[in-house]
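User: I'm putting together notes for a lab meeting next week and I want to include a structural view of one of the chains we've been expressing. I don't have a solved structure, so I'd like a prediction I can at least talk through. The sequence is below, exactly as it appears in our construct file.
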Amino acid sequence: MSPVPNRVLGSCVVAEGELMDQLETQRLSANRANWDARAVVHAASDFYDIDRYVRDRAFVSPIVRDDHLIVGDVTGRSLLHLQCHIGTDTISWARLGAHATGLDFSPSSLAVARDLSSRCAAPVTYVEGNVLDAPSVLERRFDVVYASIGVLPWIPSVSSWAKAAAACLEPGGTLYLRDGHPYNSTFDYERDDELLVAVGPYFQREGPQRSDEPWTYTDGPGVHAAENYQWAHGLGEAITAFIDAGLVIQRVDEQDSIPWQALPWLVRDGAGEYRMPADRPAMPLTFSILATSPS
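Assistant: Thanks for the context. Below is the predicted structure for the 295-residue chain, given as structure tokens.
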């Protein structure tokens, strides 16, 4: 066997594996601080309009409204919402009849989620934890495990994510993921000529992409803890990760709409989704995978 490689940092010799663990911890801390800052902005945004959930006890988020068509009836079923953020989608699943639990690593996000659930009288349980540690953090299994929009780019390993999600499923349970299509994450978003020019990676070869832009996807001010790290994962990588986790894939879909204005020239449709203009060819903006755990 080859010896574990070492690197010299100042006067310290650090094993390669230990260095990678330190980097991963630093990136996770930066991402957590970034999402803590986003929670404050998002809670006050028109994009989330959280007061609507209080005013209208029957209101279901547009994201869950669409995903429900694929996931199916959840009445009386236990549902785990991974990376639940401020909980609007988790509450929506509870309103559709699920016994819902939300998991997120951001304490500020969960504080907003718990307050909103209390104001809505929604029986949702929220748990703080890293999604990759979900099986040990939750110590139980669910009929449905759900994650939608803005999920995989924040995870270094899709394989680890899929295995953690699968381990939270009851035998015969359903795992559903919908996310931004990796194809549109490659584009140059600063252009004003409406050309689609790829400048970012589709495949992750050399670690994550670091950003210190205060931008967030909602209206409102930028975030003060701007540093964050995101990883590129291709569609094939996600599908293979589900298979390697022992899941049985039922369907894979690509959608030509996305819930936020991912590109400046996308136009909003009557359902609140954004699409390419009618005079331009449609392109995949999100994708989804529906899978089951073997009985």
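A couple of points you could mention at the meeting. Helices lie at 16-43, 50-55, 62-71, 88-95, 107-120, 134-138, 158-167, 235-244. Residues 6-292 form a domain with the Rossmann fold fold (CATH 3.40.50.150).

User: Perfect, that's what I needed.
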